[in-house]
Amino acid sequence: MSNYHIKHLEEYYQVYRKSVRNPENFWEEIAEEHFVWRKRWNNVLRWDFTKPEVTWYEGAQLNITENCIDRHLRTRGDKTAILFEPNDPNEQAEHISYQQLYERVNQFANVLKEQGIAKGDRVCIYLPMIPELAISVLACARIGAIHSVVFAGFSSTALATRINDSDCKMVITADGSFRGPKTIDLKSIVDEGLEECPCVETVLVAKRTHATIPMKEGRDKWLQPLLDSADTQCEPEIMNAEDPLFILYTSGSTGKPKGMVHTNAGYMVYTAFTFKNAFQYREDDVYWCTADIGWITGHSYIVYGPLANGATTILFEGVPNYPDWGRFWEVVEKHKVNQFYTAPTAIRALAKENLDFVEKYNLSSLKVLGTVGEPINDEAWHWYDSNIGKKKCPIIDTWWQTETGGIMISPIPYATPTKPTYATLPFPGIQPALMDENGQEIKGNQVDGRLCIKFPWPSMARTIWGNHERYRDTYFSAYKNMYFTGDGALRDEVGYYRITGRVDDVIIVSGHNLGTAPIEDSINEHPAVAESAIVGFPHDIKGNALYGYVILKETGESRDHTNLRIEINQIITEHIGPIAKLDKIQFTRGLPKTRSGKIMRRILRKIAAKDTSNLGDTSTLLNPEVVQDIIDNAL
Ligand code: WT7
Question: Based on the domain organization, do 460 and 534 belong to the same domain?
Answer without folding.
Answer: no
